């Protein structure tokens, strides 16, 4: 009986060892499969992210190209409307609105095409009207600054001379308190003098 017990122990140990080995192999297999799955998942995720980035850049490119084409066709008309609105502000009696309109025209007058458009829409005439009726230096300075931005071509100077710009600018009162007003006056008169327009029109 004692021998039977001794013989049964090694068999029990062998079974336990076999079970442990089986568990270890199962754990190893599960671990390997898990790593493989994680690798494939990570790889698929990277592919998806790369695809999303490419699609995102494609959509952005399409958007910017579309916006550029629309802007190329639409903005010139919008710019003309803004210039017209600015000229309309010069016709308002309130000096604040006049200064706003003149300030906007100063910003718009950045090339010959826009300067010509401002003159065609009556901006130069309205600026001269604003200048001749101004009661304070701030309003005069805003008008002079806009005129200074407009008069960068012989054609513009000729147009301004025809509508009496020289006599209006010459008749402005001196402004010892605002050097900028005097500076704009002298600059404009010099341009007319250079083209021999410094005579009453």
From TrEMBL:
Highest taxon in the source lineage: Eukaryota
Matches recorded under SUPFAM superfamilies: ARM repeat (SSF48371)
InterPro entries, per database record: ARM-like, ARM-type_fold
Record-given protein name: Armadillo repeat-containing domain-containing protein
Species name: Phaseolus angularis (Azuki bean)
